């Protein structure tokens, strides 16, 4: 079996599981309790917060732990917009965001906000000029993802952030896919909020964080205890948080090697297809792309057909789009990129991770080429 769907989720790193173990057994205190059990738990929690903050170049108190990337995105967008609704009710995002952002924006629309969905070019990139034109006096929040989860395109976050800083408009970026493969330093990056998730970087599922700049207005969405400095009620997922910190630290330490390996894997796959002489089309930006995501179309082979045949051969890849009741919906990302119908209907996403080897990736590419030769019409 060859797993090439790391953009969907990743296996837990053995050292992450090890780091979590004490917090699933002996250290069971509630971090909010004042007794010794609680204090020990609190120490684990705050040490994890320090480690995540350090990796992001942030102050520890700006890290809010959440139940994952989805909650971090919802908190940033809904919480950020609601807290500023007296100033204006206009939000800007892009048409290629993860559904955690798009559906949070749709919810804002139901609450009476107006949302502008910026278009992208054929590489999946938003344009700074179009963003500038979309900004209005009542714009209170902009959310643009760092790197796309389907095609890997990296957005011009620095340029957008610099422009928005001048205008005093709150800027959020969903960095879930970029975290671990790109250096992210919020002390240099002009963003006010940034979402990350543990299970995309070999941490456990169900935990993530929002970097929330000190002066950024936010309306909490979970009402309960005073946890996370009154920004998110609920007893913390301590074992998950500790695992997240461990995963983030390993990823930061190994980032260069990982990225080099993913680049090599990508080149290896393309080389196999080139040599096999099959027709293929790489989707996304030719240079500004995340190293671990390769979205490619094989015109003449439907996405479903390819994925089924790959699965039969023990290879896990993805379409990058939601599969509902067995029928494949066209990806909103590829549609926003205005790709040809044949390209859109034959797109497959391969995404690499730490357990992959170049050999197995080459083998997967060979199997893919064989499938194309067998079924393309
Ligand atoms: C996976 C993902 C999310 C959602 O994160 P969860 O932790 O699964 O909720 C959000 N944004 C992007 C870009 C993702 O890839």
From TrEMBL:
<dbReference type="InterPro" id="IPR000192">
    <property type="entry name" value="Aminotrans_V_dom"/>
</dbReference>
<feature type="domain" description="Aminotransferase class V">
    <location>
        <begin position="2"/>
        <end position="363"/>
    </location>
</feature>
<keyword id="KW-0001">2Fe-2S</keyword>
<dbReference type="GO" id="GO:0031071">
    <property type="term" value="F:cysteine desulfurase activity"/>
</dbReference>
<keyword id="KW-0479">Metal-binding</keyword>
<dbReference type="InterPro" id="IPR015424">
    <property type="entry name" value="PyrdxlP-dep_Trfase"/>
</dbReference>
<dbReference type="InterPro" id="IPR016454">
    <property type="entry name" value="Cysteine_dSase"/>
</dbReference>
<dbReference type="InterPro" id="IPR015421">
    <property type="entry name" value="PyrdxlP-dep_Trfase_major"/>
</dbReference>
<dbReference type="GO" id="GO:0051537">
    <property type="term" value="F:2 iron, 2 sulfur cluster binding"/>
</dbReference>
<protein>
    <recommendedName>
        <fullName>cysteine desulfurase</fullName>
        <ecNumber>2.8.1.7</ecNumber>
    </recommendedName>
</protein>
<dbReference type="GO" id="GO:0046872">
    <property type="term" value="F:metal ion binding"/>
</dbReference>
<feature type="coiled-coil region">
    <location>
        <begin position="245"/>
        <end position="272"/>
    </location>
</feature>
<dbReference type="InterPro" id="IPR020578">
    <property type="entry name" value="Aminotrans_V_PyrdxlP_BS"/>
</dbReference>
<keyword id="KW-0408">Iron</keyword>
<dbReference type="Pfam" id="PF00266">
    <property type="entry name" value="Aminotran_5"/>
</dbReference>
<comment type="similarity">
    <text>Belongs to the class-V pyridoxal-phosphate-dependent aminotransferase family. NifS/IscS subfamily.</text>
</comment>
<keyword id="KW-0663">Pyridoxal phosphate</keyword>
<keyword id="KW-0411">Iron-sulfur</keyword>
<keyword id="KW-0808">Transferase</keyword>
<dbReference type="InterPro" id="IPR015422">
    <property type="entry name" value="PyrdxlP-dep_Trfase_small"/>
</dbReference>
<keyword id="KW-0175">Coiled coil</keyword>
